[in-house]
Amino acid sequence: MNRVNAHRRDLVWQNIAIATPYLWLLLFFLVPFAIILKISLADPVIAQPPFTPAFDDAGRLDLTFDSFTFLLTDKLYAITYLRSVVMAVIATLLCLAIGFPMAYGIARAREEVRGLLLLLIVLPFWISFLLRVYAWMGLMNNHGAINNVLLALGIIDAPLQLMYTDFAVFVGLTYSYLPFMILPLYATLERMDPDLVEAAQDLGASSTRAFWDITWPLARPGVIAGCLLVFIPAIGEYVIPYLLGGPDSLLIGRVLFDEFFANRDWPLASAVAVVLLLLLVVPIVFLQRNQARDEEGAA
Amino acid sequence: MAANGENPANGRPIEDGFIRIRNVTKCFGDFTAVDDVSLDIGKGELFSILGGSGCGKSTLLRMLAGFEVPTAGSIEIDGQDVTALPPYERPVNMMFQSYALFPHMTVEKNIAYGLVKDGAAKSVIAARVDEMLSLVQLGDFRKRKPAQLSGGQRQRVALARALIKKPKVLLLDEPLAALDKKLREHTQFELTGIQYETGITFVVVTHDQEEAMTLSNRIAVMNKGRFHQVGTPKEVYEFPQSRFVAEFIGTINTFKGRVTAVEEERVVVACEAAGCDLVALGRHLLGVGDEVEIAVRPEKIFVSKEEPPDDGGVRLQGVVDDLGYLGNRSLYRVKLPGGKVVQVSSQNRRRSVTRFLEWQDRVWITWQPLSAVVLVD
Hints:
Chain A is an all-alpha fold. Chain A has twelve helices and no strands. Chain A has a domain at 75-264: Orthogonal Bundle (MetI-like fold), CATH 1.10.3720. Chain B is α+β, with helices and mostly antiparallel strands. Chain B is globular and about 75 Å long. Chain B starts with 18 loop residues before the first strand and ends with a strand.
């Protein structure tokens, strides 16, 4: 009897352990999302809170799609979404192009130095993100380090306009999110048997051919994970475009911020957030499905 | 079937110098992995390079495959100097110890890979893949991924993939190491069979002396980047030229001593540990007074309780110090009066539940002079 009880108690704990992450997600993701969704379906009012309640005085449901219709009619939003996606895609590709050789190099380095190299990748996190972005401002200023060096070397006559351009935003995004690309890539590449590439070469594939036939397809889970980890925060990035970008480089994170805090149009801001989330969720679900199917095939 | 050097390939004329390794040295920084090695391997041979870990055998194999370039020396295959050729341009294929099957490709695609990279016609590829699948008996598994195969099946896929291009030389890195004992014995014969069928020259690298003995026509025993001895399994086992070879392959009893007489084909060695003079077959240039070792394999020694007749062989008395029953044979450790322990292995020909010898039994051990060899270094 006692043992049955003990077993039952174990099961209860097991269920609690399994339920905890779901509870966490429910409480801190799903509930806030429901609140935002609800706000996006309200009308803005000048009051506290600045939107109409879901139920009117008579207790009837009072929801409106005005904010969403407005998003669709005003071209500004579509253009900003598109710009954000394009910026995020380019930043992701830049991170991939720089991160892949770095991750490969670390994964194939001698075992004793791998830990050190990884530490170097993570090291910038020990300094505040904001400070690091400010440091780039110092570097790319008209009187900053880069221009000063180029001027001194006589390569240029007048300072280059680096700051407040899309270029600066790409530098900031790529720099900030590179570690998120390298770490998952490293994890997949490090597990890969180096004999595989040699086997391909032995069977007649050149080094380049072996890379595309063997290394790249096997690194795909890492590529996908790294791209998601860079793309998702990059698309909604607020600080980097705000500090490094030009006045005309309006991105969705900035719009979101302005609607909430400058215009105090919470329903519209919430609608922007909901659409952004949908834009992100769709490709992620697609990729995850794709990956699950791949893994099924490999198992 | 094929065992102990009586490989079917022995029946064919072996064309000498199909692979010519000339004064090959490979250094990694200060470390010399392969030290001025020269070797000829004949066409159609099943040749093994045997040695412990770090002896340089894998480095030598990787130089044959083209993954490493020799620091000095040259390698020729079928008259073509391949020393500096990249792996994908060599008429050589390799079966990796880890098998290195491409996990994202089916068995069929894995096997076809080499021909696809050569740009062979689709019909040719399909026909060759079928041929290979039937050679390794994996026709039913063609659509599987490597992860869905057993260890033995993976090994056969690796073999088929390495053979599909009909390489002039197939390199095998520890081909049986990842298999369990039963499967290993079976696969050994399968490998020699496939080698005979295809006529391709096999170069096997292994640390397992039994594997080398059963598989090969010839063995090179390697240590510290150099060959100690190259010969047929029988030569290497029965006539080891150095202490290293004698001890690396099988077990052996050694007796230190000083040469007292050199006859035509034999030497007489005074040996303190044995308490008498030992006679052995000597193929070395020895002089009286030289320090040498006499070596005898445990299975060449006979053990008995009764005094054996004096037939010119070596006769020593001792006490059974330890014994072990292995089923087909028994091992005895016999302690001589001087304290020296001699290992004896004897076949259990008679079926019996009682022991033929017990601990502390006083016994005689004998061997024929022909059974002993002289080791110089």
